[in-house]
Specification:
The complex is a heterotetramer of chains A (295), B (175), C (671) and D (211). With 295 residues, chain A is an alpha/beta fold. Chain A has 14 helices and 8 strands. Chain A starts with a strand and ends with a helix. In chain C, a hairpin with an 8-residue loop joins strand 13 and strand 14. The chains are: A alpha/beta (295), B alpha/beta (175), C alpha/beta (671), D mainly alpha (211).
């Protein structure tokens, strides 16, 4: 039976993070989960916006939440970590702060919208593990990624500050998911360390160092690939290789979305999954080479 | 003190937990609304529903009962007995048209001075929003209505009297 | 002014300023003036300190001069001074129960901010008391005899000291300990701060003295499961867990241990925090008291899932020989004791370091807890005092000690555990002495308030131990690329708040100074003994300053860490609290509030509704008279039956209906 | 060698600043800070900060407004929430950092040509205009406003993105932009001082005010 979720892609998934959406949709389809994109969604109000006006950021997010509630599916899926956090944070503010709640409700009323707080915001990783289930995922695997050593990288904002579906210090959901599709998970102590986020674009030195530490440690732990859940993390780890090399040396390791790896295991094609959009390509895996080529 | 109307809340606190908690709130210098008057009992099980009705009848706007947490009653299970009576009484008060916010039962342990503050503040705000219960005034009004009615009937009787020789004798209208 | 006067009811009213505690927020003269107008009041005064001697004498003088028959004092909480004023009233020649107290400090002046409101409240509360006291009746204080024997629950240093104090005074004491040996946490320590006395040297003589004292019945490997009866006369049920050894027959020769079919000890040893190994039959530590072995059915071959299988060849029985001390058929037994007083010394539990995953305990082998280090530095410990890493051979060259693990943290325990700073200093000293390693202490605030403690800190500073003021962010096992020193080490990342740098420091060994928290089963003990707990779960004393070892139940006392974290000297000092139990035993009786209930025979219709309401089975039914009867000795005065009686024929002394109704009327009378 | 006096006089404090920050929803716990340094200990970016997060808490509490708002620290915070999660006093440090950033933008006292606040403002404006963000355009705008040379240096990355189809050439926008406009006007009208306390300045119309 098909399950339906409302889907909030967020700006990045239409731009630098296109490959995330390109792999997310078919993987969910393969698992009989349908995602219905919110009509006319707007920016979630993420990090940079919050630095200007936190209340307005919450108002922005609330418009999306209100539209999701109206759409009628029980839950809203937000794949980008920043969107996931801001939408959840807004929900918390609505519950905890009467003053913020007052402003949001007034602003929504202005455009004939309401939000009663009933639509939970979920991350695809959470849904994969807790709703779809590892068994269903294993059943769908046609080409186990045996031998592929993955460093699971969760980043910050899906476990902090609201650890809703995984442990805050040592999250395990992606580890289990990667094992389910046949990968070998390497011990990666930096799995929740910050990637540098938007700093990489604004203040290269500290931002790049954050990314470099992550890449270096993944290589040291013998990983072939880093799996991420966030478009910004993916961009930081994948896009700045050249800049990092200039400063600290060559730390070349591909970073892909966890959905791309799942797609590969499900037998989907590399192009179909947007794997060609990465700067550092994944080495072709012997196990999947014959099928992957030419699709 | 402002001249606006102040709610009056009568509280029955058990000696071991809630009264001690209120003492703790004092020792910790927590600040809360001054509308509650505490009557100390040994156990919340001693709270006779009549106390509550009496308090409301004598002008209280609300009644608060504080007892030990379940399993923690100094007398093993007095708090359960209190809870049972409370549930029944709550239904009865609802039938009488008294808002449920006017009667509250809280389990407050000796360590929860903070909770005493919270509960009293919440309750004061809730009762303030409801406005006065005013049962004594209502009693007075009813008495007045009765008197007027009696007077009215008597006046009518007096008028009828000359030609009412054969009318059946009437009971006096006093209640 | 005309007000009802009654020759028999002449009330004197006193409002106390309590210095400025009350007077600053309540207009005391105005309250006195208001009360003066109330019925039956013949005298109304305000006074600076009512509880002082002159204050009490004032009451006595007024009783005589003004022929007062009732007294009301508006001051602090009755839980604090009701007793004092009743005494004053009695000294003045009145029945002490012709007195009522109004709480205008804890319930009024301390919790309100508007003087007019607080004054109104004080007036209303006083009004209620005036109306109530008019209804008061003369009552007799109940005297309940106290059983002379005492029970001490928990055989740590506090329990041992308390038991010894009582026993030396000639009282019979039952000392119940749930582990196979008494000694508690202190037995595990190597040295004690700040004097660095060897813990065993000062503790073990006390242990064996307690074990052999003629007045002490030591019940080790036992737990108190039930406490029945009433104040001064408790019936205690003690569960004696089967140790499969007949205590009287065992001489502690340990032949059985030597001859166990397991030639090598292979099970984690509890006493050594799992760092050493023991056999299924073992003695917890060399100085264990009683000197009796114990058989662990979980590991003994003769058992399977707790059931006796008889499959082992039982070489231990053979080794024991004629003593015949081993009894595999031993079952759990229950013992009933009669005692009059109870001293609770159940101690603490060390914080579980796994609850702070960022410090890596359980994940990185070379992260240790402080208790583990106590065993490692101990010459009778698993390594003979040789400090090594978890691999059993490498000596650490650098050690980081993290303070406040699990303490001062809203997410775990909010309180300061009081002993960690000092024991961390002690461990730093011992570790340095044993290994010569570089030692770093990471602390938030250094707390050394005790005799000789600051001097000990000084000594450590001079010894060259490093101190970094900063709470450690994380302990990790990854190295920065350029930092050769970090390779293969545990790296601590911390802000050195005094130097002003964030630092990464590599260590061979990390020690977590775990805090103290209540025992896991503290709640069930608390319920069994009818005690209260603070929010943090430690047992609550009657008054933090004036009655720090008493509880709200007469005859039950507290000492040691079960009441809150404290160090050894404080625990022992507090265990002198046993002296308070002594006073009670010697006095021979406990005075009880005469707040029991009784039946008005004429009105009781014999409906029996009250009988199931009483949790103490104090109410019975007199079939001949067809009336309920209350046994005053069993009644504890809760009043639940009074509220439940449909015909209103039960009366509770001190809290009878008319007293409460007049109190209700009183608080609502003022407008 | 240039010497500077580091002493602070009472006049250097902006009295009430700490209380103001504390009155903002989410920042209430500030007062309970025990200066343990856990925040700095876990912060991945504290190594670049002029004041450590702990130090910022102390400065805010002591009303050193100018020092705080001029610091690099608030702009280096990448909102990873590590400090918030680990703080033993449950102070929401990240939220306090946001509040400080907002104030710095409001008062216009951040380092000139400092890219981060410019990015924040441009981000804000872009959302204001189109309802969504198109990252490459945003980045380009930001570099043009701060350091055009840097933009040139980024040619490799831009070209890479373009080749990989990650460089949209049309601006993303929403259809019913008027809805957002009306919602924001409501917020502006409600003035921030209703939200917090009376003394606080209105914080609306940042985009207009500083653009």
């Amino acid at each position: 039976m098909t399950t339906k979720y409302s889907y909030f892609p967020g700006c990045s998934l239409k731009g630098i993070g296109r490959a995330y959406e390109e792999s997310l949709l078919p993987v969910f389809r393969a698992l009989d989960v349908e995602l219905e994109e919110l009509e006319d969604w707007n920016c979630c109000g993420a990090t940079a916006y919050m630095a200007v006006d936190e209340v307005k950021a919450c108002v922005l997010a609330s418009r999306n939440l209100a539209m999701a509630e109206k759409l009628g599916h029980k839950e809203l899926l937000a794949p980008c970590s920043a969107c996931y956090l801001v939408l959840n944070k807004t929900k918390h503010y609505l519950e905890d702060s009467p003053s913020v709640r007052g402003v949001i409700q007034k602003a929504l009323a202005e455009v004939d919208m309401t939000y009663s707080g009933n639509t939970p915001v979920r991350h695809p990783l959470d849904v994969m593990i807790n709703n779809v289930g590892l068994d269903a995922i294993k059943k769908r695997v046609v080409r186990p990624l045996t031998g592929l050593k993955v460093a699971p990288y969760y980043g910050c904002q899906i476990v902090r500050p609201y650890a809703t579906f995984d442990d805050q210090h040592d999250p395990q959901t992606m580890d289990r998911l990667m094992e389910a599709i046949g990968c070998t998970v390497v011990h990666y102590p930096l799995k929740t360390r910050c990637c540098g986020a938007s700093l990489t674009g604004t203040l290269p030195e500290p931002g790049l160092l954050c990314s470099k530490i992550l890449l270096e440690e993944a290589l040291k732990r013998g990983a072939d690939v880093i799996a991420t859940v966030c478009p910004l993390c993916q961009f930081n780890l994948d896009g700045y290789h050249h800049n990092i090399k200039k400063r600290w040396g060559d730390f070349r390791i591909p970073t892909v979305y966890f959905t791309q790896l799942m797609g590969l295991a499900f037998g989907l094609g590399e192009r179909e999954l947007g794997l060609h959009r990465g700067f550092i390509p994944m080495k072709p895996l012997p196990a999947l080479a014959p099928a992957a080529v030419g699709t | 003190m402002s001249n606006e109307w102040q709610p009056r809340i009568v509280a029955f606190f058990c000696n071991w937990c809630t009264y001690t908690a209120a003492d703790l709130a004092g020792v910790s210098r927590l600040k809360y609304a001054s509308n509650t008057r505490v009557i100390r009992l040994m156990c919340s099980g001693r709270v006779d529903p009549q106390f509550i009705l009496d308090a409301l009848a004598k002008g209280a706007d609300a009644v608060l009962i504080g007892g030990c947490h379940p399993f923690d009653c100094h007398y093993a299970e007095g708090n359960y007995k209190c809870l049972r009576r409370f549930q029944l009484l709550k239904r009865m008060l609802a039938d009488m048209g008294i808002e449920p916010e006017r009667l509250r039962l809280e389990w407050i342990s000796a360590a929860e001075g903070e909770k005493v503050k919270r509960v009293i503040n919440e309750m004061t705000a809730a009762v303030r929003a409801l406005g006065p219960l005013g049962i004594p005034q209502k009693f007075a009004e009813w008495d007045k209505e009765m008197e007027q009615f009696t007077a009215h009937v008597q006046a009518a009787e007096a008028l009828k009297a000359p030609c009412a020789e054969h009318a059946p004798t009437q009971e006096p209208a006093h209640v | 002014m005309d007000k009802p006067t009654n020759q028999n009811i002449r009330i004197g009213f006193y409002v106390c300023h309590c210095g400025s505690n009350i007077a600053a927020m309540v207009d005391c003269p105005a309250v006195a003036k208001y009360v003066e107008t109330l019925p039956h009041v013949v005298l109304s005064r305000d006074y600076k300190y009512m509880c002082s001697d002159p204050g009490q004498e004032l009451i006595q003088k007024d009783i005589a001069e003004h022929k007062l028959t009732r007294v009301v004092v508006a001051s602090c909480s009755p839980l604090l001074h009701e007793h004092t004023f009743r005494g004053a009233v009695e000294a003045g020649g009145l029945n002490p129960f012709f007195f009522h107290m109004v709480n205008i400090r804890e319930h009024d002046s301390w919790v309100h901010t508007d003087k007019a409101e607080a004054t109104t409240k004080a007036k209303e509360l006083a009004h209620a008391a005036i109306m109530r006291v008019a209804m008061h009746k003369a009552l007799e204080v109940k005297r309940v005899p106290v059983h002379p024997d005492a029970l001490v629950i928990g055989g740590g240093i506090a329990g041992i000291h308390a038991a010894m104090t009582l026993a030396n005074a000639g009282k019979k004491v039952f000392l119940v300990e749930r582990e196979p040996s008494i000694g508690g946490h202190m037995a595990k320590f190597d040295k004690t701060f700040p004097t660095l006395d060897c813990a065993a040297c000062i503790l073990t003589p006390k242990m064996s003295e307690a074990g052999s004292h003629p007045n002490i019945t030591l019940l080790s490997y036992s737990e108190v499961t039930k406490l029945d009866g009433y104040v001064g006369n408790y019936t205690v049920t003690v569960k004696r867990k089967p140790r499969y050894i007949i205590e009287d027959k065992c001489t502690g020769c340990q032949e059985c241990v030597a001859n166990c079919v397991y030639k090598e000890a292979k099970f984690p040893d509890e006493f050594n925090e799992g760092l050493g190994k023991r056999k299924p039959v073992y003695i917890p530590f060399p100085q264990a008291t009683p000197q009796v072995v114990v058989i662990d059915p979980k590991t003994c071959l003769n058992f399977r899932n707790g059931e006796l299988t008889g499959k082992c060849k039982k070489s231990c029985v053979t080794a024991c020989g004629e003593k015949q001390a081993i009894d595999f058929n031993q079952k759990e037994t229950f013992l009933e004791l009669k005692v009059g007083t109870v001293i609770v010394t159940t101690g603490f539990k060390a914080f579980d370091a796994k609850r702070m995953p960022q410090y890596g305990y359980g994940k990185f082998p070379n992260v240790f807890t402080a208790l583990e280090i106590e065993r490692l530095v101990n010459s009778s410990g698993p390594t003979g005092g040789h400090v090594v890493l978890r691999d059993g051979k490498t000596e650490p060259k650098s050690i980081g000690i993290i303070h406040c693990v699990g303490s001062r943290d809203k997410k775990t325990n909010r309180w300061c555990s009081r002993v960690c700073c000092m024991y961390s200093l002690k461990l730093a000293h011992l570790l340095k002495e044993h290994t010569g390693a570089e030692i770093y202490n990471f602390y938030i605030d250094m707390r050394t308030p005790g005799k000789g403690y600051e001097e000990f800190y000084d000594k450590l500073l001079e010894e060259g131990v490093h101190f970094i003021r900063g709470r450690v962010g994380e302990v990790t096992d990854w190295a920065m690329s350029k930092e050769e020193m970090e390779k293969g080490k545990l790296v601590i990342r911390v802000e050195d708040t005094l130097a002003g740098y964030v630092r990464r420091i590599p260590f061979d060994m990390v020690v977590l100074a775990t805090g103290l928290e209540p025992q896991e089963d503290a709640q069930s003990i608390r319920r069994m003994l009818n005690m209260s707990c603070g929010t943090e779960g430690f047992f609550l004393e009657r008054h933090p300053k004036l009655a720090p070892v008493s509880t709200f139940t007469e005859g039950i006392f507290l000492a040691g860490c079960c009441q809150g974290p404290r160090d050894i000297p404080d625990s022992v000092a507090q265990a002198g609290a046993a002296a308070e139990a002594l006073v009670l035993i010697d006095k021979g009786y406990i005075e009880q509030e005469p707040n029991t209930a009784y039946i008005l025979d004429d009105e009781c219709c014999g409906c029996k509704s009250c009988i199931p309401l009483c949790p103490y089975t104090a109410i019975t039914f007199d079939a001949a008279k067809k009336k309920a009867v209350i046994n005053e000795a069993l009644c504890k005065g809760c009043g639940t039956c009074v509220a439940g009686c449909p015909s209103g024929s039960i009366v509770q002394n001190l809290f009878d209906d008319e007293e409460i109704f007049s109190e209700i009327e009183g608080v609502l009378a003022h407008e | 060698m240039k010497l500077t006096r580091t002493i602070k006089y009472e006049a250097d404090r902006v009295k009430g600043f700490g209380d103001e920050v504390r009155s903002v929803p989410g920042c209430e716990q500030l007062q309970s800070c025990i200066q343990c340094g856990t925040c700095s200990g876990v912060c991945p970016l504290s190594i670049y900060m002029d004041y450590s997060p702990r130090h910022v808490m102390a400065l805010v509490r002591s009303d050193f407004k100018n020092e705080v708002l001029k610091s690099h620290t608030i702009w280096l915070c990448a909102s990873c929430y590590h400090c918030t999660v680990e703080c033993p006093r449950q102070i929401r440090i990240t939220d306090i950092m946001y509040e400080l950033k907002q104030r710095a933008i409001q008062e216009g006292i951040y380092p000139r040509h400092f890219t981060i606040p410019v990015l924040a403002k441009e981000f804000y404006k872009m959302v204001y205009r189109y309802g969504r963000v198109t990252e490459n355009v945003l980045a380009a705008t930001m570099f043009l406003k701060t350091n055009p040379m840097e933009a040139v240096k980024m040619w490799r990355l831009g070209l890479g993105l373009l080749l990989r189809g990650r460089f949209p050439l049309v601006l993303e926008k929403i259809k019913r932009r008027d809805e957002l406009d009306r919602m924001m006007k409501v917020v502006d009208k409600m003035h921030i001082d209703q939200l917090h306390d009376d003394q606080k300045k209105p914080r609306h119309a940042v985009a207009g005010g500083h653009a």
